[in-house]
Amino acid sequence: MDLGLTGRTFVVTGASNGVGLAIAAMLLADGANVGVCARDAGRLRAAVGGLPATAGARALCLGCDVLDGGAVARFVGDVAAEFGGIDGVVNNAGQSLMRPLFETTELEWTEQVQLKLFSVLNTVRAALPWLRRSPVASVVNVNAILARQPEARLAATGAARAALLNLSATMATELAPDGVRVNSVCLGLIDTGQWHRRYEAAGAGQPYEQWTAELARDRGIALGRIGSAEEVAFPIVGLLSPRSSYVTGASLDIGGGVSRYV
Ligand SMILES: NC(=O)c1ccc[n+]([C@@H]2O[C@H](COP(=O)([O-])OP(=O)(O)OC[C@H]3O[C@@H](n4cnc5c(N)ncnc54)[C@H](OP(=O)(O)O)[C@@H]3O)[C@@H](O)[C@H]2O)c1
Fold it and tell me: How far is the CA of 217 from the centre of ligand 1 (A)?
């Protein structure tokens, strides 16, 4: 099925690894141009630069911290100048903070709120003039099941995630008259750099595969395993596609059945 993405241009933040990298790969393979960023530009170019592309699609890789509004405006402007417009944004850059509630400092709370809210506000604000001109404009905010299902030692990240879910719904309502769809995906446990870092920090003394299998069992993931970045990328690219033209303000869980709410 043609997803209608060929020749379109998408901004993907945090694309040097994990979910963002898998999204960039899928878009390029589908013939879409991507403007991608991460703070470490060298790692980003090494990861995205060699990805195969079809139909003449290209990637523009730029170093940018999504918390820096000025840098984001320059990054997004450069992407639009390079490709002649922007048709969609995936707000993916981010990470979580594991810390007991009353050991979380005020600065860490502020950083989590900034990372979850201002990374999205900065990027969408910068892209909006081009999104308003696109006939297929779409934003996907990468969120976490944690937004609805809180967990111990993730208070600041969870509260900021819940706020992002709320913000995304408002954004969908406010941007609908401009023809810009806005949706959220809420991830469970996905096999990316985040979990490799936690595995190393845990010093578990067992192979990574065994450690993640136990993690999946302990968390009660219905499918019995953690997910892959590629399994997350497909539904996100599907939401970007104009074939999802009547989907806005929605939130899709991608967690292998880890969520416990209905
Ligand atoms: N993996 C999971 O289980 C899981 C679960 C729930 C939600 N999520 C969310 O899904 C998204 C992707 O996660 P992932 O697991 O793929 O993470 P990852 O493998 O750690 O990759 C994160 C990416 O974001 C970039 N990044 C981080 N902070 C940034 C900043 N301030 N400005 C620009 N780029 C930044 C990183 O590159 P640099 O370090 O070079 O900047 C990297 O490219 C994140 O928002 C994460 O919180 C993941």
Answer: 24
d(Cα 205, Cα 46) in Å, to the nearest integer? Answer: 30
User: Which tens digits make up the pLDDT trace of 2-13?
Assistant: 999 999 999 999
Q: Do residues 215 and 161 touch, judged by C-beta distance below 8 A?
A: no
Nearest atom within ligand 1 for CA of residue 39: 41
Which of 19, 65, 191 maximizes ligand 1 atoms within 8 Å of its Cβ, making it the mutation to test the pocket? 19
pLDDT digits (tens, 9 = 90+) for 63-116: 999 999 999 999 999 999 999 999 999 999 999 999 999 999 999 999 999 999
Pairing status of strand 33-38 against strand 227-228: unpaired
- Domains in the chain, start-ordered, CATH in brackets? 9-188+229-248 (3.40.50.720), 191-225 (no CATH)
What is the position in ligand 1's atom list of the atom closest to the CA of 38? 34
